[in-house]
Amino acid sequence: MAQLSADAVIIGSGINSLVCAHHLARRGWSVIVLEQADEPGGAVRTGEYTVAGFAHDWAAMNLSLFAGSPYFQQNAEELSRHGLEFAPASDCFSSVFPDGTWVGIGTDAGANRARIAALSERDAQTWGVLSAGFPAEAEHLFGLLGSPMKIHALASIVWRALRRKGLGGSQDLARFLASSPRAWLEETFESPKLRALLGAWGMHLDFAPDIAGGALFPYLEAMANQTFGMALGKGGAATVVTALQRAIEARGGRILCGTEVGQILHSGGKATGVVAGGETIIANRAVIANVAPKAMQRLTGGSGDARYDTAMRNFRHAPGTMMIHLAMSDLPDWAAGPELRDYAYVHIAPSLDQMARTYAQAVAGLLPDAPVVVVGQPTTVDPSRAPGGQHTLWLQVRMAPGEICGDAAGEITASTWDEAAEPFAERALNLLERYAPGTRAKVLGRRIVTPTELEADNPNLVGGDQVCGSHHISQNFLFRPARGYADGSTPIRGLYHTGAAVWPGAGTGAGPGYQLGRKLAGK
Fold this sequence. Notes:
Elements (H helix, E strand, L loop, with lengths): L4 E7 L3 H12 L4 E4 L11 E2 L8 E2 L6 H4 L2 H12 L4 E4 L1 E6 L5 E5 L2 H11 L1 H25 L5 H28 L2 H8 L3 H13 L11 H13 L1 E4 L4 H13 L3 E3 L4 E7 L2 E7 L2 E11 L3 H8 L5 H9 L5 E9 L16 E4 L3 H12 L2 E2 L4 E5 L1 H4 L9 E10 L5 E2 L9 H19 L7 E7 L1 H7 L37 E3 L13 H11 L2
Parallel strand pairs: 1-2, 1-12, 2-9, 6-14, 12-20, 15-18
Antiparallel strand pairs: 3-4, 5-8, 6-7, 10-11, 11-12, 13-17, 13-19, 14-16, 16-17
Helix pairs in contact: 1-10, 1-17, 3-10, 4-5, 7-8, 8-9, 11-12
């Protein structure tokens, strides 16, 4: 058999890999994508994990970042031609509270304001000011999040902010970017329920209420969901993977699944290819590794740059997540009100204090006594995912320790996930049952996915960390994954790094892959 070769050999088939491969293929590069699993997509996959006919998203569900990304805007027609279709949600996210009340955010700004006014008229006025100011703020914030972490790019962003906002306004923006969710929420709103509703978004990206740098994400999710709504994938999140795969293959690229890479080859400081399945695959122009940082040294045997290798070894991961997939005869009957059945997300995270305690327990290796439960109701947005009149639920149980040291409630004695999975899942389902009585009676089938199973399925999800690394300030922006390497470069010429561990980080927006593709092949 002839030896395989390509301009770019890409390790891993997550969204960032596929976006990078497609961008390169569009510009005439030959590409080979190597995936250890039996299907592409990484954490973005859809399957019948419970009962035949019920489609569940394995990990990622929300495709809003992809739908709003510069990459999609450039390639929308081609990807749509290859089958990509979104299911838009106008009722986006909500939270339920122990006193039987709820609050939620959707695209109806008047309804949002009315719900907030019922909690606090002052907060409703503040919400109106934030909403009116969002277009101007979005220019600076999305500009920052979409910018390569290069001095000239940052200087341009700072200059634009100074020109538009003045010195004082720019300093206020910098202070906001450094603030914790709690600091910003308590300064901005007086209602504890509104603070909890927005603060829950920080937990999606490893920003517990008291972590510096986390204020940005509750703000952006609130304003962006009100302005644009939320986008799920029609039929499942895998619609984006299928479309990308077809687009890459239509341009001559190859995606080889069931192919584990054991080594990145390099000599004289330059990457030359990989060893996969005992075979050498030659990379004529670039090896691109979509891997967790700690895997870089294992695959390369060391880059020769001590600072870089140390940074890869010391890269910190966020606490893990347990997934629970449920096939349902009907949606939950939320005690707080039937309107909640219309929301894509319902958060069970009733206070900032509870979220902070849950996070601290998980970081300490304890099974939280009251985990944050993100209840996704995708079939209320996209009925095609289940047989007529039936539904799926997508539960993220946050936070969960990758390695179990104990149980914060003192009830679960198991020290491995094989043994702890069932009782910890029951704890999460008990919370759901408390807020939506009778839910258990509607369950037709369930699948529990532990943090260790998430990592075994996708080694980038270390300890079940779905964001492939903490986004705390010391490991974000210029420092993701390490100072001097936020653009995907490495000390080895021709070897590049992409994925959620590289700036601009996690999410389905594919920023790292798109930025790297543009770096290598131009716009």
